[in-house]
Amino acid sequence: MAWIYLMLAGVLEVLWAFTMKQSAGFTKPLPSLVTFVTMAASFGLLSVSMKTLPLGTAYSIWTGIGAVGAFVVGIVMLGEIVSVARIAAAALIVSGLVLMKLSS
């Protein structure tokens, strides 16, 4: 279950990052509220996963999911630029996540 909680925490991290962007510096109430709720839920699930997973593994995977997820959401939903260097960077992050999971 710890891995499921960690994956959900990572997905919620992407969601709160996206809604934080949409909140325009916390000036829009609904995106701001969604940001705070999903942020709390993400931290809560991360905390539960850390009961059994090593700190380094859990935190690395959580931030990796957030980084790559935000990268993809930025491209798909916000029209951010796609470049070979950015794709290579995301691929390196994913490679690190896979290696982290395999070493746990």
Automatic annotation (TrEMBL):
<keyword id="KW-1003">Cell membrane</keyword>
<feature type="transmembrane region" description="Helical">
    <location>
        <begin position="33"/>
        <end position="50"/>
    </location>
</feature>
<keyword id="KW-0812">Transmembrane</keyword>
<dbReference type="InterPro" id="IPR045324">
    <property type="entry name" value="Small_multidrug_res"/>
</dbReference>
<dbReference type="GO" id="GO:0022857">
    <property type="term" value="F:transmembrane transporter activity"/>
</dbReference>
<comment type="similarity">
    <text>Belongs to the drug/metabolite transporter (DMT) superfamily. Small multidrug resistance (SMR) (TC 2.A.7.1) family. Gdx/SugE subfamily.</text>
</comment>
<protein>
    <recommendedName>
        <fullName>Guanidinium exporter</fullName>
    </recommendedName>
</protein>
<feature type="transmembrane region" description="Helical">
    <location>
        <begin position="57"/>
        <end position="78"/>
    </location>
</feature>
<keyword id="KW-0813">Transport</keyword>
<keyword id="KW-1133">Transmembrane helix</keyword>
<feature type="transmembrane region" description="Helical">
    <location>
        <begin position="84"/>
        <end position="102"/>
    </location>
</feature>
<dbReference type="GO" id="GO:0005886">
    <property type="term" value="C:plasma membrane"/>
</dbReference>
<dbReference type="InterPro" id="IPR037185">
    <property type="entry name" value="EmrE-like"/>
</dbReference>
<keyword id="KW-0472">Membrane</keyword>
<dbReference type="GO" id="GO:1990961">
    <property type="term" value="P:xenobiotic detoxification by transmembrane export across the plasma membrane"/>
</dbReference>
<dbReference type="Pfam" id="PF00893">
    <property type="entry name" value="Multi_Drug_Res"/>
</dbReference>
<dbReference type="InterPro" id="IPR000390">
    <property type="entry name" value="Small_drug/metabolite_transptr"/>
</dbReference>
